[in-house]
Amino acid sequence: MNTGNLLLQAQNIHKTYTGKTEPVEVLTGADLEIHENDLTAIVGASGSGKSTLLHILGGLDRPDRGSIYFRNADLAQMNDEELAKFRNLNIGFVFQFHHLLPEFTALENVFMPGLIAGKPMNQIRDRAGYLLDQTGLSNRMDHRPSELSGGEQQRVAVARALMNEPEILMADEPTGNLDERNTEKLLSVLLEMKQKERTGIVLITHDHRIAEIAPNIYELKKGTLQPVTLQNS
């Protein structure tokens, strides 16, 4: 189900890595379209290339062949500096490991992307506080990561990813280290923030049950993406 104008388009994406004995083809012609406010899940076996694809879609890596367009911007034509600025302003990332800075509080971790973007400090603090409140962490703002549970740390990571109001959030196995209760809480937060922020989400997961929260599901298999139709749909 597409909910808006075309936001991101990936065409014929190829990626090969150098293996110990021979090259390993990870992506062999993957195609994907993401529309505004879409929620898209990508499933696949371990080692199928899901994270590689996400990194390419988000501009963290470059394909060997193929094109990535974000609205009218051709990511292949950007140099590394331009691509870094583009990512900071347009794309949020949440990974399996939260990657929070241990010496900073939750609030400081969340407003870091705003600092990098050069936004005014009062605006940054207000935005970070709002996001932590919306993710259920208003009473944990001054706590450092070591003082937070795993689920709380991931919710801080979600708030940080939304700091610069990105049009799309790339989530790579965000529940991979969480128990069932915290998994449900994080998915609920993601869905709530998607609705409030009008942010599209690409969710990478190996768990088909988690993928079922998404209207659009694809399986990455043999280097290409195939639509998945739920049996009860």
From TrEMBL:
GO terms for molecular function: ATP binding; ATP hydrolysis activity; transmembrane transporter activity. Residues 8-232 form the ABC transporter domain. Gene3D superfamilies: P-loop containing nucleotide triphosphate hydrolases. It holds the Pfam family ABC_tran. It comes from the Bacteria. SMART domains: AAA. Keywords: ATP-binding, Nucleotide-binding, Transport. GO terms for cellular component: membrane protein complex. Transmembrane segments: none annotated. Belongs to the ABC transporter superfamily. Macrolide exporter (TC 3.A.1.122) family. This is ABC transporter ATP-binding protein. It comes from Natronogracilivirga saccharolytica. The lineage of its organism: Bacteria, Pseudomonadati, Balneolota, Balneolia, Balneolales.
